[in-house]
Specification:
Length: about 475
């Protein structure tokens, strides 16, 4: 008989953080970390106007990432050409100094993308509630945390109270069994899941990823998987903590030490969903049948395996998705039936909070080694820590020798907020997370793929099957 007391990972974390419940059933949750970038300065301004202090400064983390340049960083903020962007970075520094919050600013040796810095510093722990001023805060769910993005007014609420009213999402399990084939990465798995369930398939849900294929992923790969959860419309993505989680966290700057470590580890082991825990919905996927994925349209569910042809919209049953596909192909300038590998690429971007960690750069370097790029291609590490690690391994030399540009850390061409843009009409192979119209610049055309696939595109000058470079 199924136990009525069995709980999901989500339920366990929420129960631990619940402070109060309102008449609508929403919960007031205690927040372990509040992560902000340059954007929500008005949350700080509003707090200052009201004469209120930040409740717990040590539990708010500020990262300069969206607006920092990826070249000329030796000039500091003086190297930011756009006055508005420069002001945003300066205001973050000023607000951090005034409120005494943790600040990884433009000159900090650990500066980088917020969703890269927080995990690599050991701030994200199993069982935490983490919120952030960016939707991809769900990346931290890879550690067994309930992590999600919030708006500026919610940021202000957390700054003032270290709590937040939350409508608890439904629990959805994504069970991926089997072994991923060579050349198939967490990015491919994530795109395959989104293509399967749709860009709104996870709406109102927190997705828990499980199964042998997920357990086999490295922590960095799990972060990629959770990072893309929001692109399926979900609030958060989670992976239950295990020995890989514990080993990743061990000795990181913000990880527990000594007796605290042992106590934390014992607690973390209690968090995985109980046998018999009931999920509101479930999806099963055979990971062994997946191939490298590429998006062809302007949403993440418009994706297919690299050996495929562009689908014919008329054959799509759902009228909404059919109309969306027609608009997408018109914008992308691609005809139905075109083989993906016939599509020429104008430039390549390897970076973003999705795919700019050390394992991602290693994957790109393995493909690039001994080869030359045919088109402009930039590599933007997710943090200065990642950049130093990559350089210590000589990855930058491999990439530079192949003709890639080696840049400094930041969001870069994922959002274009710092001036790194794809010119109108050009087609970009990108390791980022969004491919909507104009995401990388007005009139830009984006094809999402893994770092290895992007490196293969840079070398081929077209969308290419990375398995031809590494062996099937």
């Amino acid at each position: 008989m199924m136990s009525t007391t069995a709980r999901t990972l989500l339920k366990k974390v929420v129960d631990l953080h619940a402070v109060a419940r309102n008449d609508d059933g929403d919960l007031l949750l205690y927040v372990d970390y509040n992560v902000v970038h340059e954007g929500p300065f008005y949350a700080f301004d509003g707090l200052a106007r009201e004469g209120r202090e930040v409740a717990r400064p040590a539990q708010t983390v500020a990262c300069a990432d969206h607006y920092v340049p990826t070249t000329g960083r030796d000039k500091g903020t003086a190297g930011i050409k756009d006055a508005e962007a420069r002001d945003m970075v300066e205001r973050l520094r000023q607000n951090a100094e005034r409120t005494r919050i943790v600040h990884f600013g433009i000159d900090h040796p650990q500066q980088g993308i917020m969703h890269v810095v927080v995990p690599e510093q050991g701030m994200a722990h199993p069982g935490m509630v983490i919120v952030g001023s960016d939707s991809h805060t769900c990346t931290n769910g890879a550690f067994g945390a309930f992590a999600f993005g919030v708006g500026a007014s919610q940021v202000k609420h957390v700054l003032a109270t270290q709590t937040l009213w939350v409508k608890v999402p439904r629990a959805m399990r994504i069970d991926v069994q089997g072994e991923l084939a060579p050349g198939v990465s967490a990015k491919d798995l994530a795109l395959a899941i989104i293509a399967r369930i749709g860009m709104a398939g996870g709406a109102g849900a927190a997705l828990e990823y499980c199964g042998s294929a997920v357990r086999a992923l490295s922590m960095e790969a799990r972060m990629t998987l959770c990072n893309l959860t929001v692109e399926a419309g979900a609030r958060s993505g989670m992976v239950a903590p295990d020995e890989k989680t514990f080993e990743y966290l061990r000795e990181l700057p913000y990880a527990p030490r000594g007796a605290d470590w042992e106590a934390a580890r014992s607690f973390w082991q209690t968090l995985p969903s109980d046998p018999g825990a009931v999920f509101d919905s479930e999806v099963s996927i055979d990971g062994s049948r997946l191939g490298p994925m590429v998006t062809w349209g302007t949403s993440q569910d418009e994706a297919c395996e690299v050996g495929s042809r562009i689908p014919e919209p008329a054959l799509i049953d759902d009228p909404g998705r059919r109309a969306r596909a027609e608009r997408a192909l018109a914008y992308m300038g691609i005809a139905p039936g075109t083989p993906l590998t016939d599509i020429a690429i104008d430039r390549v971007f390897i970076g973003s909070c999705t795919n700019a960690r050390l394992d991602d750069l290693r994957a790109a370097a393995r493909v690039a080694a001994g080869r030359k790029v045919r088109i402009p291609a930039i590599v933007v590490p997710g943090s200065r820590t990642v950049k130093r690690q990559a350089e210590a391994e000589g990855l930058h030399e491999v990439l530079l020798s192949a003709g890639f540009e080696w840049r400094d850390a930041g969001c870069s061409m994922c959002t274009g907020s710092n001036g790194d843009l794809v010119p109108s009409g050009e087609r970009c192979a990108s390791t980022s997370n969004r491919n909507m119209e104009g995401r990388q610049g007005k009139g830009s055309r984006t094809h999402l793929m893994s770092p290895a696939m992007a490196a293969a595109a840079a070398i081929s000058g077209r969308i290419a099957d990375v398995r031809e470079f590494i062996g099937s």
